[in-house]
Write a structure and sequence with these properties.
Structural class: alpha+beta
Bound molecules: shikimate-3-phosphate
Helix content: 25-40%
Strand content: 25-35%
Number of helices: 13
Number of strands: 25
CATH superfamily of the largest domain: Enolpyruvate transferase domain
Length: 433
């Protein structure tokens, strides 16, 4: 793709539906009792990977392409059967980690694998607790990397103190906990997205949070849950950053999920004095949602770390661009998790943006960026990491000259991204090569 800076940006954007909620809606409804209609399910590569894995185990998911609506006829908690082949999770860490929990609860043998990126991502974080709960589970390279081989069943509830703040780990343990004898408790070092808990509760499970600890009593059955999936704040984030940094912009983003476990980016924008307004809050699919308007802003640098990090984890690389536009030095700390995402997002970001003029210092757990530094177009390799592809696009739309982007992979979470960017920039910002 080629991106040039548009002179002016005026747009209303309806971002795609939330990826995290879409995965969970498919997985939990597949093992619920009854039929659920899920509207506005995210039609992206990652969510299709989850659906395909579930269908390979007998799940009844009717999700015609481009329909936006899936009808899932639940099999009940014990209705899945042994897949005839390796389950391919594609590029999706959420698919692999949450299904590891689900499969630990099922007595059959299964193997989970994925693409080159996913087979390099840390899996010991889900393998260890599954083994402690009673599953027989192995993986490549000393039980750390996929493929993962699981022979589930015989699961006992436990209290798991997770060393990482990860919603995927928490969700994997809770999934296994659905099949356990006795209660399962997950204690997190910092609160992470709680979509699994909200959905399980809405399906009738006895699940409660106190502080950073979540307790699940095995439910016996889950009731099918029809819903409409709200828009994804992680897909709204590139627009929020573009709108705040561009000198002549006004972007309205409709129907964005503003679950407080996801709104770290809004807190950061607020701390940086960005011109961001939230419309009236409503409930969509059991989650809060609102329209957000962002306008050109005079930004101040900020420092982020601690509990905010998991609430903004997928948006943090975009702070490099906010920082470049702001007055002062912007610092991100406590975010070593960025190094084990679809790519090493600290290194990919710094390598991509440094040749454009960004003054960035990489740290093991984050980065710092000097403000008020103009960017100039360059060639960027997004390394098949969708969030890096969108970061590169926003960088290109803020830079002078032409930016060429390779391996953008945006279809993983946001298939219509380039069309939306072209529209936002009245057609003059991007064109396909
Ligand atoms: C996700 C959790 C986060 C996030 C990922 C989606 C989820 O990962 O980065 O994009 O849906 O649970 P971690 O749980 O590894 O932090």
């Amino acid at each position: 793709m080629i991106v040039n800076r548009p002179a002016r940006i005026r747009a209303t954007i309806r971002v795609p539906s939330d990826k995290s909620i879409s995965h969970r809606a498919l997985i939990l409804n597949s093992i619920a009792s009854g039929k659920a209609t899920v509207e506005s399910l995210l039609e992206s590569d990652d969510v299709r990977s989850t659906a395909a894995c579930l269908v390979a185990m007998g799940a009844r998911i009717d999700w015609p392409e481009d329909s936006g609506t899936a009808v899932i006829d639940g099999l009940g908690l014990h209705g899945l059967f042994e897949p005839g082949d390796v389950l391919n999770c594609g590029n999706s860490g959420t698919t692999m980690r949450i299904l590891t929990g689900l499969l630990a609860g099922n007595q059959f043998l299964s193997v989970l694998s994925g693409d080159d990126s996913l087979r390099q991502r840390p899996m010991a974080r889900v393998i260890r607790p599954m083994r402690e709960m009673g599953a027989t589970i192995f993986a490549r390279t000393g039980d750390t990397l996929a493929p993962i081989v699981i022979k589930g069943g015989g699961i006992r509830g436990m209290t798991y103190e997770s060393p990482v703040a990860s919603a995927q780990v928490k969700s994997a343990v809770l999934m296994a906990g659905l099949f356990a004898e006795g209660e399962t408790v997950v204690v997190e070092p910092a609160a992470t997205r709680d979509h699994t808990e909200l959905m399980l509760k809405a399906m009738g499970a006895d699940i409660d949070r106190t502080g950073n600890s979540v307790t699940l009593t095995p439910p016996g059955r889950l009731a099918a849950l029809g819903m409409r999936v709200p828009g994804d704040i992680s897909s709204a984030a590139p627009w929020l950053v573009l709108g705040a940094c561009h000198p002549d912009a006004e972007i309205r983003i409709e129907n964005v999920n503003i679950n407080p476990t996801r709104t770290g980016i809004l807190d950061v924008l607020h701390a940086m004095h960005a011109n961001v307004e939230l419309g009236e809050q409503r409930m969509v699919g059991g989650e809060p949602a609102a329209d957000i308007v962002v306008r050109s802003s005079s930004l101040q640098a900020t420092r982020v770390g601690g509990d905010l990090i998991p609430r903004a984890i997928d948006e943090l690389p975009l702070l490099a661009l906010l920082g470049a536009c702001a007055e002062g030095e912007t610092v991100v700390a406590d975010a070593a998790e960025l190094r084990v995402k679809e790519s090493d997002r600290i290194e990919t970001m710094a390598t991509a943006l440094r040749p454009m003029g960004l003054q960035v210092v990489e740290r093991p757990d984050g980065f710092s960026v000097q403000g008020r530094v103009p960017l100039a177009g360059h060639r960027i390799d997004a390394r098949g990491d969708h969030r890096m592809g969108m970061l590169a696009a926003v960088a290109g739309a803020l830079a002078s000259g032409e930016t060429q982007i390779e391996n953008d992979a945006v279809t993983v979470s946001y298939p219509g991204f380039w069309q939306d960017l072209a529209r936002a920039a009245s057609g003059d910002a991007t064109f396909a090569r």
